[in-house]
Amino acid sequence: MSIDPHVSLDGRLNSRPERGCSGPLCCIFSTAKSRNPGRGTTLRGHGRVHFWLVRQLGEDRYAVRGVDGDYLPFGDESHISAEELLRHYTPEVAVFEDRLLPSAKRRNYRLVAAHRESGVKRQLLAMDETNMRGLFELGMEYILAGRSAKGRNLISELLRVRAPFPGKNQFLFNEFGINLRKIGYPEGAVICYRRALKYTDLDDHLHYNLARAFYDQGQWWDCMNHLARCFELNPALPLARDLVVLVAALAGNPALRRKYGKPPVPDGVAGRADALWESGFPGVVGPG
After folding, report:
1. Most buried residue among 34, 72, 77, 192 by CB atoms closer than 10 A?
2. Using omega within 30 degrees of 0 as the cis cutoff, is the peptide bond preceding 5 cis?
């Protein structure tokens, strides 16, 4: 059987997500020391950091305002670039959700902006799908820019967001996992896929994606467990069939494993790959 062209032996995909945040995001950020992006802004400290409300205006343009003791924005907005944001500011999703949003609700504080394309006004002070996507893309930008700790912390915070909203489902977190795997962060992809599983255990593609992420890391038993679940749900899924062939090929070819940096495949995993093939395609010559 031939291997699907989108599945490569070294675990890399043929494409990467477009860089640049599409946003628009709106969230609290902190700086470790006083940074005053605009004249006349009186900063109010929060312990060892200053908090800022940052909202995205475009791919390389962000508006920044100080945050007062009630966690509400004040003063005039100043503008910074994406590079300045990545270099100097740290996202504080929990502060945004736990402090600013309740404070804004108590004081009936609203901040709205019209969408550039539709012109429809959107409440910016909200943890909704648009904001989640914008912040997730920013997390990937941190990772791609070599600031992995900030990026991974941001993604971890997004997975803990409690606010329910339309679009917060398995498809959203599955998409996040796919994008993390594309930029070479399979560990984060696994976390996102597992978050998606909290919504459903009946998605064959989701189990395949988990199997693929574990394959990337050479975690054979986890890979095979999710492949088996995928086969239970849909034994004819082409990508799952391809991955079974791939695991069996690596099991029987030490040179191929060395070439692609994969650890030895346990005999039990190779045997289970053969069994999956035979159970899904009886009478057809298996991959082994």
Report:
1. 192
2. no
pLDDT in tens, the chain (288 residues): 233 333 333 333 334 333 333 458 999 999 976 555 544 344 455 567 899 999 999 888 999 999 999 999 998 899 999 999 999 999 999 999 999 999 999 999 988 876 665 567 888 999 999 999 999 999 999 999 999 999 999 999 999 999 999 999 999 999 999 999 999 999 999 999 999 999 999 999 999 999 999 999 999 999 999 999 999 999 889 999 999 999 999 998 999 999 989 999 999 999 999 888 887 654 444 555
DSSP string covering 142-191 = HHHTT-HHHHHHHHHHHHT-----TT-SHHHHHHHHHHHHHTT-HHHHHH
Tokens at residue 183, please?
Answer: 């930029």
Q: What angle do CA 86, 91, 92 make, to 5 degrees?
A: 165
Positive or negative: CA dihedral 184, 167, 224, 286: negative
User: Which helix (H) or strand (E) segment is 83 a member of?
Assistant: helix 82-88
Return the sign of the alpha-carbon dihedral for residues 152, 153, 158, 162.
positive
Distance in angstroms (rounded) separating the CA atoms of residues 206 and 200: 9
**What is the rounded (10 degree) CA torsion for 5, 273, 177, 196?**
140
